[in-house]
């Protein structure tokens, strides 16, 4: 993958901030690549960067327009097509993390061809993937798991990698979702892998390495989310993680998108994840808890973190606000 930056981040007309989590992740971790944002009428999300038209972005040097949104089903709304075609006609490449392929849409395919521009569908693997084998391999691996989807597993993994690099440790973030791939520049979007090959894909992402090297594997979904549990299980088996991090958002009252489905309590979630992880690594263990406290006031935040740390006996932090030093300390 050779996506050119700077990027123009396309947000369409999404109805909430979480729908723009792909774009937000890129802005947070690669701000120097993000020139501006393009929002259609009615868009609620905002990345905190300059609003731009396509013409302004091209004049400013933008090379790729990134469709930086997520939605249930990964579809591309028909009324977004004209903006994508306009970007291609203006000389930009276009990249997307949606399930639907840009090249499967005739207007977009034709615009790319007539302008000699590239289309990047980062969600779709371009390599042959074997089935998982569960064979022990050298190196160390850490996997982020969660009580729900969209609770901060990618942020936690990136923050841990950053802390390890500060300490001179050998570590690599391994991207398993479209946002992570945009940030890392490589990876496999696990939710686009045929089910039989999910664990094999994770083994491919985290091959044998130096004995003191850590692969920090981005988690996906939750074993307790009926829509995404299969992907979560494949990750657990393929990662053969030595260390697990539990990620949680405490203001949730139900699984994202499923009002009838309650969240598990933290201990129940840990027990099931540990049972599944130990199929391929009997020594797997939890080493920390990452809490997304953005929905809590400061006093509540500190009280909640202290409560969880006492109950679970593990270092408990908000990776975004507190960093991950206590968790990395627990690995050494």
From TrEMBL:
Protein name, UniProt field: DUF1611 domain-containing protein
Lineage of source species: Bacteria, Pseudomonadati, Pseudomonadota, Alphaproteobacteria, Sneathiellales
All residue ranges annotated as the D-glutamate N-acetyltransferase-like N-terminal domain in the record: 42-125
SUPFAM superfamilies in alphabetical order: P-loop containing nucleoside triphosphate hydrolases
Leader peptide range in chain numbering: none
InterPro entries on file: DgcN-like (IPR011669), DgcN-like_C (IPR035086), DgcN-like_N (IPR035402), P-loop_NTPase (IPR027417)
Ranges of residues in domain D-glutamate N-acetyltransferase-like C-terminal: 132-328
């Amino acid at each position: 993958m050779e996506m050119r930056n700077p990027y123009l981040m396309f947000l369409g007309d999404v109805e909430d901030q979480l729908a723009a989590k792909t774009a937000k992740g890129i802005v947070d971790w690669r701000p120097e690549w993000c020139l501006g944002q393009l929002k259609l009428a009615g868009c609620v999300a905002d990345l905190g960067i300059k609003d731009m038209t396509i013409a302004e972005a091209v004049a400013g040097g933008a090379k790729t327009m990134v469709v930086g949104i997520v939605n249930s089903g990964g579809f591309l709304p028909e009324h977004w097509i004209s903006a994508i075609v306009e970007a291609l006609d203006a000389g930009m490449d276009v990249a997307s993390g949606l399930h639907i392929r840009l090249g499967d849409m005739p207007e977009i395919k034709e615009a790319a061809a007539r302008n000699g521009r590239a289309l990047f569908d980062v969600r779709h693997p371009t390599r042959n993937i074997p089935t998982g084998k569960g064979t022990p391999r050298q190196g160390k691996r850490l996997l982020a798991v969660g009580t729900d989807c969209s609770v901060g597993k990618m942020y936690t993994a990136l923050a841990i990698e950053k802390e390890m690099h500060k300490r001179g440790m050998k570590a690599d973030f391994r991207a398993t979702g479209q946002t992570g791939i945009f940030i890392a520049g490589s990876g496999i979007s696990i939710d686009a892998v045929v089910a039989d090959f999910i664990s094999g894909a994770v083994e491919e992402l985290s091959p044998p390495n130096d004995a003191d090297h850590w692969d920090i594997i981005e988690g996906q979904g939750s074993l307790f989310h009926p829509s995404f549990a299969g992907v979560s299980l494949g990750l657990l088996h393929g990662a053969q993680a030595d260390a697990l991090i539990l990620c949680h958002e405490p203001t949730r009252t139900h699984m994202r998108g499923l009002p009838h489905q309650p969240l598990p309590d933290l201990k129940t979630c840990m027990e099931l994840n540990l049972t599944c992880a130990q199929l391929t690594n009997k020594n797997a263990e939890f080493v920390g808890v990452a809490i997304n406290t953005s929905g809590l006031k400061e006093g509540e935040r500190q009280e909640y973190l202290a409560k969880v740390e006492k109950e679970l006996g593990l270092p408990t932090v908000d990776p975004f606000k507190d960093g991950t030093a206590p968790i990395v300390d627990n690995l050494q």
